[in-house]
Amino acid sequence: GPKRVPVSKKLYVGNLSFDVTESHLNEMFGAYGAVKSAQLIMDRDTGRSKGFAFVELVNDKEADAAISGLNGQMNSGRALTVNEAKPKEDRPRSGGYGGGGNRY
Fold it and tell me: What ranges do the domains of the chain cover?
Protein backbone atom coordinates (compact mmCIF):
# COMPACT_ATOMS: atom_id res chain seq x y z
CA GLY A 1 0.00 0.00 0.00
CA PRO A 2 0.96 3.64 -0.12
CA LYS A 3 3.59 4.60 2.43
CA ARG A 4 2.14 6.87 5.03
CA VAL A 5 4.29 8.98 7.27
CA PRO A 6 3.91 7.12 10.54
CA VAL A 7 2.01 9.21 13.03
CA SER A 8 2.57 7.88 16.49
CA LYS A 9 -0.65 6.78 18.10
CA LYS A 10 -1.69 8.50 21.27
CA LEU A 11 -3.32 6.15 23.73
CA TYR A 12 -5.83 7.05 26.39
CA VAL A 13 -5.27 5.17 29.64
CA GLY A 14 -8.14 5.36 32.10
CA ASN A 15 -9.29 3.98 35.45
CA LEU A 16 -5.77 4.23 36.86
CA SER A 17 -5.33 3.91 40.58
CA PHE A 18 -4.18 7.16 42.13
CA ASP A 19 -0.78 5.79 43.09
CA VAL A 20 0.24 5.12 39.49
CA THR A 21 3.06 7.41 38.42
CA GLU A 22 4.48 8.32 35.02
CA SER A 23 7.33 5.90 35.61
CA HIS A 24 4.78 3.13 36.19
CA LEU A 25 3.22 4.05 32.85
CA ASN A 26 6.60 3.98 31.14
CA GLU A 27 7.20 0.50 32.54
CA MET A 28 3.75 -0.83 31.66
CA PHE A 29 3.87 0.41 28.09
CA GLY A 30 7.59 -0.11 27.69
CA ALA A 31 6.86 -3.83 27.80
CA TYR A 32 5.22 -3.41 24.38
CA GLY A 33 7.51 -0.95 22.66
CA ALA A 34 9.35 2.35 22.77
CA VAL A 35 7.37 4.95 24.72
CA LYS A 36 7.57 8.42 23.20
CA SER A 37 5.78 10.14 26.05
CA ALA A 38 3.66 9.32 29.08
CA GLN A 39 1.58 12.12 30.49
CA LEU A 40 -0.35 11.60 33.69
CA ILE A 41 -3.23 14.05 34.01
CA MET A 42 -3.11 15.84 37.34
CA ASP A 43 -5.79 17.73 39.20
CA ARG A 44 -4.61 21.33 39.39
CA ASP A 45 -6.20 21.96 42.78
CA THR A 46 -5.04 18.88 44.67
CA GLY A 47 -1.94 17.97 42.66
CA ARG A 48 -3.18 14.38 42.61
CA SER A 49 -3.59 12.13 39.63
CA LYS A 50 -7.01 12.33 37.99
CA GLY A 51 -6.80 8.62 37.26
CA PHE A 52 -6.07 8.87 33.58
CA ALA A 53 -3.15 9.49 31.28
CA PHE A 54 -2.06 9.76 27.68
CA VAL A 55 0.76 7.60 26.42
CA GLU A 56 2.38 7.83 23.01
CA LEU A 57 4.25 4.92 21.52
CA VAL A 58 6.72 5.41 18.72
CA ASN A 59 5.40 2.49 16.69
CA ASP A 60 1.77 1.96 15.66
CA LYS A 61 1.91 -1.82 15.80
CA GLU A 62 3.35 -1.66 19.30
CA ALA A 63 0.63 0.77 20.29
CA ASP A 64 -1.97 -1.72 19.05
CA ALA A 65 -0.24 -4.50 20.97
CA ALA A 66 -0.31 -2.36 24.12
CA ILE A 67 -4.03 -1.73 23.67
CA SER A 68 -4.85 -5.40 23.30
CA GLY A 69 -2.41 -6.39 26.04
CA LEU A 70 -3.38 -3.81 28.66
CA ASN A 71 -7.03 -2.95 28.06
CA GLY A 72 -9.11 -4.63 30.76
CA GLN A 73 -6.06 -5.77 32.73
CA MET A 74 -6.35 -5.47 36.48
CA ASN A 75 -4.00 -2.90 37.97
CA SER A 76 -4.18 -2.12 41.69
CA GLY A 77 -7.66 -3.62 41.80
CA ARG A 78 -9.02 -1.67 38.83
CA ALA A 79 -9.55 -2.82 35.27
CA LEU A 80 -7.57 -0.51 33.02
CA THR A 81 -9.13 1.22 30.05
CA VAL A 82 -6.67 1.53 27.19
CA ASN A 83 -7.71 2.74 23.78
CA GLU A 84 -6.67 5.05 21.01
CA ALA A 85 -7.08 8.65 22.10
CA LYS A 86 -9.43 10.46 19.79
CA PRO A 87 -8.29 13.89 18.69
CA LYS A 88 -10.46 16.61 20.18
CA GLU A 89 -11.46 18.18 16.89
CA ASP A 90 -12.32 16.02 13.92
CA ARG A 91 -10.01 17.08 11.17
CA PRO A 92 -11.10 15.73 7.83
CA ARG A 93 -8.53 13.15 6.79
CA SER A 94 -7.63 12.99 3.16
CA GLY A 95 -8.74 9.67 1.77
CA GLY A 96 -10.69 8.97 4.93
CA TYR A 97 -14.30 7.94 5.32
CA GLY A 98 -16.91 10.14 3.73
CA GLY A 99 -19.65 11.67 5.89
CA GLY A 100 -21.59 9.59 8.35
CA GLY A 101 -21.72 9.87 12.11
CA ASN A 102 -20.14 7.43 14.49
CA ARG A 103 -19.49 3.96 13.14
CA TYR A 104 -20.82 2.15 16.20
Answer: 10-84
